[in-house]
Amino acid sequence: MRSKKALSEAIRICKDRNVLKEYLENRETEVVDIMITLYDEQEIMERYVESEVAEAVEQAVEQAVEQADSEAAIRTTIEMCQDFGISTEETVQKLIDKFSLSKEMAENKVQEYWK
């Protein structure tokens, strides 16, 4: 294990420079175990955060795709209603029913896509 070797080297340097020498000589194994545990916990936490970020990005991308698909479906619905001679009021109601839009949002979409 590379980290254990590096930690042992750091402890050796501390002893050579008389930094906590007596303590390290008496409890070197304990110090190594504690430091490795702390290192492992930090590494686990970093990997957890990385996985959470990756998952959040993936969800954001999926949501963007769904919204893009939803927007295309809204546009198509409005265009079809117009092609079939359905009034703007009825088209607004269809958007409210089909896409769970507020009345204001549905009206804005009809204004945006009605030719």
Q: What does this protein structure show overall?
A:
- The chain is an all-alpha fold and 115 residues long.
- 88% of the residues lie in helices and 0% in strands.
- The protein contains 4 helices and no strands.
- Helix 2 (21-83) runs antiparallel to helix 3 (88-99).
- The protein is rod-shaped.
- The chain starts with a helix and ends with a helix.
- The model has no long low-confidence stretch (mean pLDDT 88).
Helix-strand layout with pairing:
Blueprint: H1 2-16, H2 21-83, H3 88-99, H4 103-113
Summarize the structure.
The chain has 115 residues and is mostly helical.
Distance between the termini: 68 Å
Question: Per DSSP, what share of the residues sits in E-state strands of 2 or more residues?
Answer: under 5%
Mean pLDDT: 88
Helical segment count: 4
Shape: rod-shaped
| Poorly predicted runs of 5 or more residues | none
Q: Helix amount, in percent?
A: over 70%
Largest beta-sheet details:
none
- How many extended strands? 0
User: Which class do the helix and strand fractions yield?
Assistant: mainly alpha
The whole-angstrom Rg is: 32 Å
Q: What are the secondary-structure elements, in order, as H or E?
A: HHHH
Keywords for this entry:
single chain, 115 residues, 4 helices, 0% strand, mainly alpha
